[in-house]
Amino acid sequence: MSRHLVWALLAATLALVLPASAGAETLELRLRSRVPIAEGAAQFHLVHRDESWESEQTAFIVCDMWDAHHCLNAVRRVGEMAPRMNRVLQAARERGALIVHAPSSCMEFYRETPARLRAMQVPAAKNVPEDIGQWCRLIPSEEQGAYPIDQSDGGEDDDPAEHDLWASKLQAQGRNPRSPWIRQVATIEIDQQRDAISDNGVEIWNLLEHRGIRNVVLLGVHTNMCVLGRPFGLRQMAKNGKHVVLMRDMTDTMYNPAREPHVSHFTGTDLIVEHIEKWVCPTVTSDQLIGGAEFRFSHDRRPHVVMLIGEREYRTNESLPKFAVSTLGKDFRVTILHAEAENKNSVPGIETIADADVLLVSMRRRLLPIAQLKYVRDHVAAGKPVVGIRTANHAFTVRGDVEPGADNWPEWDEQVIGGSYTGHYKDGPVTALQAAVDEHPILKDVDLSKLKGHGSLYKVSPLRSHTQAVLVGSTEEDPEEPVAWTHLTATGGRVFYTSLGHIEDFEQPAFHQLLLNAVRWSCAP
Questions:
Q1: pLDDT tens, position by position, 253-278
Q2: CA separation (Å) from 166 to 61, 151, 185, 459?
Q3: Which CATH class is domain 304-522?
Q4: pTM exceeding the 0.85 threshold for the entire prediction
C-alpha cells in the first residue's frame, strides 16, 4: 500500500468521527412550490415558504457536472454555470454543510483521494432503502401530471455540423464521443479534508445517515435526467423521506427545441422545474446563499411575462396557460398567477410581478388587498408594459362598498388601459373585425379574414388620449367600437388592450398571432 493511500485512509477515517464543522450556521432559505388552486384542479398556485435549516444537517449534492459531454452546448452551459456553482458550494461549506461531489462513472479518477475514501468508509446505515442503488424514473405523485417535454432523442440541441466537429475532437483526445466524461469539471473545487465523492446511492445514503443529515440540496445537470433519476437524485431522496430541494438556477436540461412542445431550450428547463415543483419537491435559488440576483445563462434573453388570471366567465385560466407554452414558449419566460378559488380577491405569489418585464392581465372585478395590488401599481408606476385582454379593463374595480384593507382602482381603465368601459352589448352576434390603421407591428401576419370576436362587443368609446386604435369591430345589430388599441401611460409604459379573449377566440391562430405581436410590441426597445 502506497504512503499516499495510507494517509488518505487515515484522513478519511478521522473525518468520519470528527464533527463536520465547528462554525456551523443556519441556512435561511425560501422554498418555492406549486399547489393546485383547488382539489383536482389543473391550475396551480406559486407558493413560497421560508425555512431555517441547520447547516450540519444539510448536504449539497453536485450531480454530474462533468468535464466533458457529448453535447457541445451542454458543455458550454456547464462551463458558464460552474464558477457560480463553485461560489455556492464554498459558501455552503463555510457554513458547515456537507458537500458531496457526484460525477457519475468517474470514480476511478478519484480512487485514492480522501474525499472518495470518506464516502466509501462510512458504516452501513440501518435504514438503507431497498432500491436506493437504482435509477428512479417515476414516483407515484408524478402520475397525477403529464411530463412536459419530449426528451426521447436524448435532448441534444447542437448544430449538427458543429456537433460532428466536437465528436471528432473528443475522439482525437482518446475519449468516447458518446460518454467522454472522466472527472468533474475542474472549476468546481473539492475540499479533500471536508467533502465527499461518490456516485453510489447506497454510499451517499449511508453518508447522509451517518452525519444525521435530513436536508438535501441537489444542483448540477441534467435536470430532466440525472438530477431527477440518479440513485442519489431528487426522486429517490423525496420518496425516501429526505427534505430535498432543487437549486433551480444551478441546473440545466437536456432538451432539443425541435421536439415537443417546441419551446426554447431555456423554457424547456422551466417546464421541468415546474414539473418538479408540482410533483417532486420544492426549489431554491443560489442567491439565497451568496446574494445578488438569480443566475441566468447569457443566451437566455427571454423577457419575463407574468400572467395575472382571475375571471370566471371566459375560461382564460385554461386558454392562457396553453397559449403561454404554444405561442410564447420560444421567446418568453412566463409565470402564471391565479386568484384563489375560495377567496377570489387574493393572488398567491403576486410578488413575482416585481420581476416582470410585461404584465398580462385577465381579471374581472377583483378587490385585491392593498399590499397585493401595490405590486401592480408599482409595475405601472415604473413605466413597465401591460397587456390586457377582455375583462382586464375592469380588473380591479367594483361597484359599491369596499371592505377595509381592499384596494379599489376605478381609474385603472382610464389611466392604464386607456378606454371608457361602460358595459357590453348583448351576447350572441359574432363581431366582425377590421384594421383601424393601415399598418402596425401588432397586425403583422395576422389574417383578419380569419379573426372574429366570439364574446359580446364591449362599449369602450371614447378612447382616451395617447391611444391608437388597432382593430375595430361591429355586429349586424351593434355600432362600431374599438376592439384593440395601444396606449401610453403617464409614466411612459406601453399598453395593449383587446376586448377579445373569449375561450373560442383562443381557438383562432390569428388571435394567437395578434396577442404574440402585442406582447412583443409592448416590451420592444
A1: 999 999 999 999 999 999 999 999 99
A2: 29, 21, 17, 61
A3: alpha beta
A4: yes
